[in-house]
Amino acid sequence: MKRIDHENRVGVLFVCLGNICRSPMAEAVFRHRVIKAQLQELITIDSAGTGNWHTGKPPHEGTRRILDQYGISYEGQKARQVAGDDFTRFDYIVAMDGQNEQDLRTLASRADARIIKLMDLVPESLLKDVPDPYYTGNFEEVYDLLTAGCSALLELIRREKGL
Ligand code: 4NP
User: Catalytic site residues (predicted)?
Assistant: First the structure.
Protein backbone atom coordinates (compact mmCIF):
# COMPACT_ATOMS: atom_id res chain seq x y z
CA MET A 1 0.00 0.00 0.00
CA LYS A 2 1.18 3.47 -0.84
CA ARG A 3 2.41 5.23 2.30
CA ILE A 4 0.99 8.70 2.62
CA ASP A 5 3.26 11.28 4.21
CA HIS A 6 0.90 13.68 5.99
CA GLU A 7 3.75 16.19 6.36
CA ASN A 8 3.34 16.74 2.65
CA ARG A 9 -0.37 17.53 2.63
CA VAL A 10 -1.27 20.47 0.44
CA GLY A 11 -3.39 23.12 2.23
CA VAL A 12 -6.08 25.11 0.43
CA LEU A 13 -8.00 27.93 2.16
CA PHE A 14 -10.93 29.66 0.44
CA VAL A 15 -11.62 33.20 1.61
CA CYS A 16 -14.56 35.61 1.19
CA LEU A 17 -15.96 38.42 3.33
CA GLY A 18 -18.44 36.73 5.67
CA ASN A 19 -17.51 33.01 5.29
CA ILE A 20 -21.18 32.07 5.06
CA CYS A 21 -21.97 32.29 1.31
CA ARG A 22 -19.16 32.00 -1.27
CA SER A 23 -16.13 30.50 0.46
CA PRO A 24 -18.10 27.74 2.28
CA MET A 25 -19.65 26.82 -1.09
CA ALA A 26 -16.18 26.78 -2.67
CA GLU A 27 -14.87 24.62 0.21
CA ALA A 28 -17.69 22.09 -0.25
CA VAL A 29 -17.48 22.02 -4.06
CA PHE A 30 -13.70 21.66 -4.01
CA ARG A 31 -13.77 18.90 -1.33
CA HIS A 32 -16.37 17.02 -3.43
CA ARG A 33 -13.98 17.21 -6.42
CA VAL A 34 -10.98 16.17 -4.35
CA ILE A 35 -12.82 13.15 -2.92
CA LYS A 36 -13.89 12.11 -6.44
CA ALA A 37 -10.23 12.32 -7.50
CA GLN A 38 -9.29 10.25 -4.38
CA LEU A 39 -6.90 12.95 -3.24
CA GLN A 40 -8.55 13.66 0.13
CA GLU A 41 -5.60 12.16 2.04
CA LEU A 42 -3.27 14.61 0.36
CA ILE A 43 -5.20 17.88 0.33
CA THR A 44 -6.49 19.78 3.39
CA ILE A 45 -9.38 22.16 2.65
CA ASP A 46 -10.86 24.95 4.77
CA SER A 47 -12.52 28.36 4.39
CA ALA A 48 -12.56 31.63 6.32
CA GLY A 49 -13.81 35.21 6.12
CA THR A 50 -11.95 38.50 6.31
CA GLY A 51 -14.81 39.69 8.58
CA ASN A 52 -15.88 38.13 11.89
CA TRP A 53 -19.62 38.87 12.03
CA HIS A 54 -20.74 35.29 11.44
CA THR A 55 -18.17 33.29 13.44
CA GLY A 56 -19.52 29.85 14.38
CA LYS A 57 -22.47 29.98 11.97
CA PRO A 58 -23.24 27.28 9.36
CA PRO A 59 -23.32 28.25 5.67
CA HIS A 60 -26.09 30.65 4.54
CA GLU A 61 -29.44 29.07 3.65
CA GLY A 62 -28.91 29.94 -0.05
CA THR A 63 -25.55 28.15 -0.08
CA ARG A 64 -27.03 25.13 1.73
CA ARG A 65 -29.94 24.95 -0.70
CA ILE A 66 -27.65 24.89 -3.75
CA LEU A 67 -25.31 22.31 -2.20
CA ASP A 68 -28.28 20.09 -1.20
CA GLN A 69 -29.60 20.39 -4.76
CA TYR A 70 -26.31 19.06 -6.17
CA GLY A 71 -25.81 16.44 -3.44
CA ILE A 72 -22.66 18.08 -2.07
CA SER A 73 -21.89 17.77 1.66
CA TYR A 74 -21.13 20.79 3.87
CA GLU A 75 -21.26 18.79 7.10
CA GLY A 76 -19.43 20.37 10.02
CA GLN A 77 -18.62 23.61 8.22
CA LYS A 78 -18.71 26.67 10.49
CA ALA A 79 -17.69 30.26 9.80
CA ARG A 80 -14.45 31.64 11.17
CA GLN A 81 -12.25 34.67 10.55
CA VAL A 82 -8.89 34.50 8.77
CA ALA A 83 -6.08 34.05 11.34
CA GLY A 84 -2.42 35.04 11.16
CA ASP A 85 -1.17 31.45 11.03
CA ASP A 86 -3.36 30.69 7.99
CA PHE A 87 -0.63 32.27 5.88
CA THR A 88 1.86 29.62 6.97
CA ARG A 89 -0.57 26.69 7.38
CA PHE A 90 -2.03 26.89 3.87
CA ASP A 91 -0.19 26.66 0.55
CA TYR A 92 -2.96 28.20 -1.55
CA ILE A 93 -5.09 31.04 -0.19
CA VAL A 94 -7.90 31.53 -2.66
CA ALA A 95 -9.87 34.79 -2.70
CA MET A 96 -13.38 35.12 -4.12
CA ASP A 97 -13.02 38.75 -5.25
CA GLY A 98 -10.56 41.59 -5.63
CA GLN A 99 -11.44 43.15 -2.27
CA ASN A 100 -10.82 39.82 -0.46
CA GLU A 101 -7.51 39.51 -2.31
CA GLN A 102 -6.45 43.04 -1.34
CA ASP A 103 -7.45 42.48 2.31
CA LEU A 104 -5.51 39.19 2.39
CA ARG A 105 -2.38 40.86 0.99
CA THR A 106 -2.63 43.49 3.75
CA LEU A 107 -3.02 40.78 6.42
CA ALA A 108 -0.31 38.47 5.05
CA SER A 109 2.69 38.43 7.32
CA ARG A 110 4.70 36.28 4.95
CA ALA A 111 5.75 37.85 1.68
CA ASP A 112 5.66 34.54 -0.16
CA ALA A 113 2.14 33.53 0.92
CA ARG A 114 0.43 32.30 -2.22
CA ILE A 115 -2.70 34.39 -2.64
CA ILE A 116 -4.78 33.66 -5.73
CA LYS A 117 -8.07 35.13 -6.96
CA LEU A 118 -10.08 32.05 -8.01
CA MET A 119 -11.55 33.35 -11.26
CA ASP A 120 -8.11 34.48 -12.49
CA LEU A 121 -7.56 30.73 -13.03
CA VAL A 122 -10.40 30.61 -15.58
CA PRO A 123 -9.24 32.63 -18.61
CA GLU A 124 -12.55 32.24 -20.48
CA SER A 125 -14.61 33.68 -17.60
CA LEU A 126 -15.76 37.25 -18.16
CA LEU A 127 -16.38 37.64 -14.44
CA LYS A 128 -13.13 37.84 -12.50
CA ASP A 129 -14.85 38.39 -9.14
CA VAL A 130 -17.40 35.95 -7.71
CA PRO A 131 -20.40 38.29 -7.10
CA ASP A 132 -21.53 38.30 -3.47
CA PRO A 133 -24.92 36.47 -3.27
CA TYR A 134 -25.49 38.00 0.19
CA TYR A 135 -26.37 41.09 -1.83
CA THR A 136 -27.33 39.69 -5.28
CA GLY A 137 -29.35 36.67 -4.03
CA ASN A 138 -27.98 34.70 -7.02
CA PHE A 139 -26.48 31.54 -5.52
CA GLU A 140 -26.81 29.57 -8.79
CA GLU A 141 -24.45 32.03 -10.53
CA VAL A 142 -21.97 31.56 -7.69
CA TYR A 143 -22.21 27.76 -8.00
CA ASP A 144 -21.53 27.92 -11.76
CA LEU A 145 -18.47 30.15 -11.30
CA LEU A 146 -17.14 28.05 -8.42
CA THR A 147 -17.43 24.77 -10.32
CA ALA A 148 -15.31 26.23 -13.14
CA GLY A 149 -12.88 27.83 -10.68
CA CYS A 150 -12.51 24.68 -8.56
CA SER A 151 -11.74 22.53 -11.63
CA ALA A 152 -9.02 24.96 -12.70
CA LEU A 153 -7.63 25.11 -9.15
CA LEU A 154 -7.44 21.32 -8.84
CA GLU A 155 -5.66 21.13 -12.20
CA LEU A 156 -3.18 23.78 -11.08
CA ILE A 157 -2.44 21.98 -7.80
CA ARG A 158 -2.08 18.59 -9.50
CA ARG A 159 0.36 20.12 -11.98
CA GLU A 160 2.37 22.07 -9.41
CA LYS A 161 2.47 19.32 -6.75
CA GLY A 162 2.70 16.35 -9.12
CA LEU A 163 -0.50 14.73 -7.80
P1 4NP B 1 -19.81 36.01 1.72
O2 4NP B 1 -21.12 36.95 1.78
O3 4NP B 1 -18.62 36.95 1.83
O4 4NP B 1 -19.89 35.36 0.39
O5 4NP B 1 -19.94 35.07 2.88
C6 4NP B 1 -21.36 37.85 2.84
C7 4NP B 1 -21.98 37.41 3.98
C8 4NP B 1 -22.25 38.30 5.00
C9 4NP B 1 -21.90 39.64 4.87
C10 4NP B 1 -21.26 40.07 3.73
C11 4NP B 1 -21.00 39.19 2.72
N12 4NP B 1 -22.20 40.57 5.90
O13 4NP B 1 -21.91 41.76 5.73
O14 4NP B 1 -22.71 40.16 6.95
Answer: 16, 22, 132
